[in-house]
Amino acid sequence: MLGINIAFIVVLVVVAYTVLAERRILAFIQGRVGPNRVGPAGLLQPFADLLKFILKEEIVPDKSTKFVYVLAPIIAIVAALMTLIVYPFGPTINLPFFGPVSLVVARMDIALLYVLGITSVGVYGIALAGWSSNNKYSLMGGLRAAAQMISYELSLGLSLVGVVMMSGTLDLYNIVEQQSGWFGLNWNIIYQPLGFIIYLISAIAETNRVPFDLPEAETELVAGFHTEYSAMKFALFFMAEYVNMFTVSMLATTLFLGGWNGPGVAQFPVLGVFYFFGKIVFFLFLYIWLRGTLPRFRFDQLMNFGWKFLLPVAILNIILTATVIFFLS
Amino acid sequence: MFEPTALLFILFAGLALGCAVSLVAQRNPLYCAISLIGVFVALAGLYILLAAPFIAAVQVIVYAGAIMVLVIFVIMLLNVEEEEHRPLNWRFISAAIALGAILFAEAAFVLFFVNTPRSVQLSSEAPTAGLTASIGTGLFTEYLLPFEITSVLILMAIVGAMSLARRVGLVPRSASALAQMAADNQSTGGGNLRPVDARQIIQPGNTEATGQAMAQMQIERGEAAAPAPDKEQDG
């Protein structure tokens, strides 16, 4: 229980500061200053935002389907947070008074499948939000989100099969341990570069971020699936999006970049936590950088790219990996 | 006091039963679909209690994550109305009672007449039956033939679905077929249809041509003013 609470608090704080970092970095890219008034250099801005979200009036559209309308943001945030428990945040460390502490909340035989399963449930939050709001822009956003997420989920899952074939386990802790040693040359990204690129692209599409943010394309759909949401319900969707960014970054780090591995971890295991979060911060920065740089896809381009390019390349990656493993063993 | 496992079983079983009743009783198709998702998730919880985590994960990924998303997608896309109440039909009710009685009898038979020694489950060695590795090994050694036959069956179903979906009228027309249509149209006069010129057919994604065609159409309908002819340069 304590582990779950600590993981939630740490992740939610990181997520809150990701939002601030996104605003500051986007401002830097666009030659602006960004929020810098609340606290030193704007560091208290997330708390001001949260307070504002809580104090705003909840507006429920008159002809919406009330039950589903309330249920949708709950599904979104629960599905986003549930995957946190299987990630190894670091190796087992020795605390002065507590003895050895494992930095993974729940080690499972099926951790990777669990992550994929919970992620695939997350699409309901967005689809149901779009449907229940009784607004055509919301509905279009919800439909787009459902179509996009089930399309890119396939290539996301298939891009991970190569890693699973190499490591022979679905347990994330074991996968990380197998990547230790050899000064980083055991990281899966070196053996699975194609799988890593496919995963990265699919993960960006799966989290509905630029350049795949069609479900909330503001030039066409006002705000997409969350047009009718206000106050804390909107904040839940917003948080779910950033928690999802965080979890797909964690999965990329765990599976491809060696998790908590880094120089000196064998002597000082605590360093592993910092390496882990450092790699995640790199991915989060990549997300923000892309948002400041790339334009949005058109919907037919998105579908063609997902089904006609990404999926065949992912299958090709599996075949290549299987062939190499067969001839090496 | 109950064991935690028993409490979890009661929780998930109750959730599954409640969602199942709601699935049958609801009139709004979307509520029915949400109830069915609830049933699947609760069943996944029961599978985990039975030490079969792989089946639980696959249950959520395949049924809750893929199939039901498609069902909800279709319900949203077609905007299916609520079903109206129909008067009760005694034929259906009697059939339902008969089938329910058979199911109940089966359950009772298994409960009272099939002897399963309880002690077998509590063997000393760690159970490996539900784990991913043992399922994978089993599928690719002992049960390879059923596995391959099932794969062929699924492939057949996919091909069948494709061929049903791509009926003649819905096949995306290639440019040459469109040109042929345009030629036919002009030779027969085309009835009330506007004669189609093969050059006018705009490929999807050609935004410039789409914009020009829209503008042309609006000008023809009188919704927009034609662009003024170029003014002569004043001296």
Q: What does the radius of gyration of chain A come to? A: 20 Å
The gyration radius over C-alpha positions of chain B equals 31 Å
- Ranges of chain B where pLDDT stays below 50 over 5 or more residues in a row are none
pLDDT averaged over residues of chain A: 83
Please give the share of residues in helix of chain A: 55-70%
Oligomer: heterodimer
Instruction: Please provide the ordered H/E string of secondary-structure elements of chain B.
Output: HHHHHHHH
From N to C, what is the helix and strand string of chain A? HHHEEHHHHHHHHHH
Q: Mind describing the biggest β-sheet of chain B?
A: none
Helix content of chain B: 55-70%
The number of helices of chain B is: 8
- The best one-word shape of chain A is globular
Instruction: Catalogue the unreliable spans of chain A.
Output: none
Average pLDDT reading of chain B: 76
**If interface size is counted as residues with C-beta under 8 Å from the partner's C-beta, which chains form the largest one?**
A-B, 33 and 27 residues
Instruction: Using the alpha-carbon principal axes, give the shape of chain B.
Output: elongated
